[in-house]
Amino acid sequence: MEQQKKKPIAPPRLAALLTGISLGACGAGCVLLYTMTAYLPLLLAGIMQALPALINLLLLIPMGKKREEPKPPAAPPAAAAADIAPGDVGTAEGTRKKRHRIRHAVKHLPRRMGQGMHRLWRDSRSHILVLSILGLTVGANVFFWFMAKGSTSSFALGYHIPVILVAMFVLFIVLDKWCKHAGDDHRENLTEDRTEHGEDVRTDLYHQAVLHGLRGALAAGKAAQLILSVALMIKLLGYTDLVKVAVVLVSLLFAYETVFLLISLGVRVIRHELSTAPELSIPMPGLGGEDLGVLSYLEKNTGITMRSLWSIRLVKQILPYAAMAVVLLLWGFSGVVKIEAYQEGAHYRLGCLQEETLKPGLHMTLPWPFDTVEVYDTRVVNDLTIGYLSDERADNIWTETTGTEEYKLLLGGGKELVSINLRVEYRIDDLHTYLTGSSSPEALLQAAAYETVTARTIGTDLNTLLAVDRAAFAQSFKEELIERTEVHHTGLTVVSVVLESIHPPVEVAAIYQELISAEIQAAQIVLEAQGTADVTISDANNYYYTQISEAEVDQYESLAAARAAVAEFMASVEADNAYRDAYRYYKYLQAITEAYADAKIVIVGDGVNTENIYIGNIPLG
Q1: Quick one: which of 278, 499, 520, 531 could link to 474 by a disulfide (CB 3.0–4.6 Å)?
Q2: How many CB atoms lie within 10 A of CB 431?
Q3: Which residues make beta-bridge pairs with 363?
Q4: 14 backbone φψ class: left, alpha, beta (φ>0; ψ -120 to 50)
């Protein structure tokens, strides 16, 4: 029996197969570039290109041909039947034959499983394809829209990325031309004698339908690559970052692609054409020729000739000019710039900074890229931290680190360190000078501030610095800082300086605080002792003056009593001289009265005349 020659692959099938593989490879390349750069539109474009590539590769799986069912084996001869007689069951010969049958079944199991899978694919191919395409579409959409919400920050971008995208764009153009010519040339080469081979004709039509669907996928991929190339070039040239715009455009393109894939799948299923002409088209006007336009798509899927309608022809004639006018209008409006009241615009013409800056208001400049405007907040006060680096504002505590790093200064004696935390508030005063005077005005301002701090602290000690008047220190610091920055022409003006804290370094702040606390406690003890001594002295002085006062009182009382006695005596002398008998008798009676003031007088005797007895005081005449 002669060996049958292997049939060569038809050009439409070869073109479709290589185009699908190339489309999938470019999608995988975009995903790989995303892993290297984290540029989100690359990942979205990769998913958008991989989906139609996988779908069309599924459609290229061979359909399989019907095979004649194998005839059942003839009945074994009588001799063979006799070999497997019931009597042999359980014997050595019966066991050997049973093992032989098992080995034979195991040996041919893969072939039988393959035949079963082939029959399943041949009989249920359309259903499997529909379910697979729907599963791929749903899975790709879930992953796409989940990733589209991710971060748009990127890194490691370079000019090689747009170059790779442009190379993919050119590759897609070549593949599109190849697919178009492969389908057209093979269709023209179909002669009448080949119409007898209906299976070959149907296969060619099938591959041409797949080629047309791949051309639509290539057109969508070219649109995505064009969007990404433009966005990346604008970012790399330093104009602006259009990553969010690119994400939105690629997302809209992916949604457009998904809708038309599902519509095309639905039409093919309804028409039962998935096994004859599976044309899952994505109409992309302007990127794939007239045969990939919306009108061609509607004509193929509705059967209505759209090109004969005069309104459609008119719209087709007007639409390019209208689109061009819209593009030109939008391009012209790129030169309209709005400057807010707190802003000022730096006007660049062909990359050269103009002398006059744009004040608040609406301005009309030349469209991009001839004129560009960079807007700066010149009326907004910014702040610059001197002495420490901090992520957020917090209270300054000596024993706790204020920021991620503190700036330590060596004081005049060379044995002490101090940390000074200041906040310098500034704003842009002259925008032109700010942009042309130096490459980094804020860095110059910060350096000048550190120089000023060093100059102010190098000739003093810690105690003097801690006791400084903070308001006066901040004011003089501001004046000196302004003098230092004027010579550098930074275009910045210092609004104010706030001295937030002066303290020893955090490493020794606790010890210094304990030392200060010990000094305070010592002073407190001295003050308490001084207070106790003052109280004791005051009590002693009070006792001293009390005793003196009492002695003086006793003295004055004694003198008064003596003077009274002298006065009484002199009065007695005068009374005695004047009324000798009466006074002496008065004194006699007074003496008796005093002597017997509390005594009882008993008069005993016979013949006592009571008339001559007087009881009571004798009045002095």
Answers
A1: 499
A2: 19
A3: 337
A4: alpha
Location of structure tokens 């070219």: 222
Task: Please state the domain extents for the chain.
Answer: 11-63+101-302, 336-376, 384-504, 538-593
CATH T-level assignment (fold) for domain 384-504: Tetrahydropterin Synthase; Chain A (3.30.479)
Please state, in angstroms and rounded to a whole number, the distance separating the CA atoms of residues 427 and 436. 16
Mean local confidence (pLDDT), 49-67: 79
What is the C-alpha separation between 406 and 245, in angstroms, rounded? 42
**Nearest Cα to Cα of residue 365 among 378, 354, 379, 380:** 354
Distance CA 146, CA 139 (A): 11
For 383-441, write each residue's pLDDT tens digit: 888 776 554 454 454 445 554 455 555 555 555 566 677 788 888 888 888 888 888 88
Specify the residue for token string 């706790």: 400
Tell how strand 388-389 and strand 352-353 pair up: unpaired
Secondary element (H or E) of residue 441: helix 441-457
What residues have CB less than 8 Å from 184, skipping those under 6 apart? none
Separation of alpha carbons 198 and 190, rounded Å: 11
Give the span between the Cα atoms of 464 and 472, in whole angstroms.
14
Degrees to nearest 5, angle at CA 314 with 313 and 315: 90
Question: 262-294 b/e with 16+ CB inside 10 Å = b?
Answer: eebbebbbeeebbeebbbbbbbbbebbeebbbe
Q: Is the dihedral of CA 233, 236, 237, 239 positive or negative?
A: positive
Amino acid present at 425: E
Residue with tokens 């920050």: 153
Overall size of the chain counted in residues: 621
The DSSP secondary structure of 377-399, one letter per residue, reads -TTSPEEEEESEE-SS-----TT
Q: Are 432 and 376 in contact (CB under 8 A)?
A: no
Pick the closest to residue 273 from 143, 134, 130, 403 (CA basis). 130
Read off the pTM.
0.49
Inter-CA distances, 577 with 57, 498, 581, 587, Å: 166, 103, 9, 14
Beta bridge partners of 499: 422
Residues 219-240 have pLDDT tens digits of 999 999 999 999 898 888 877 7
Q: Report d(CA 287, CA 217) in Å as an integer.
A: 11
Decide: residue 503, CB within 10 A, 0-12 exposed, 13-18 middle, 19+ buried: buried
Q: Please tell me what DSSP assigns to residue 429.
A: S
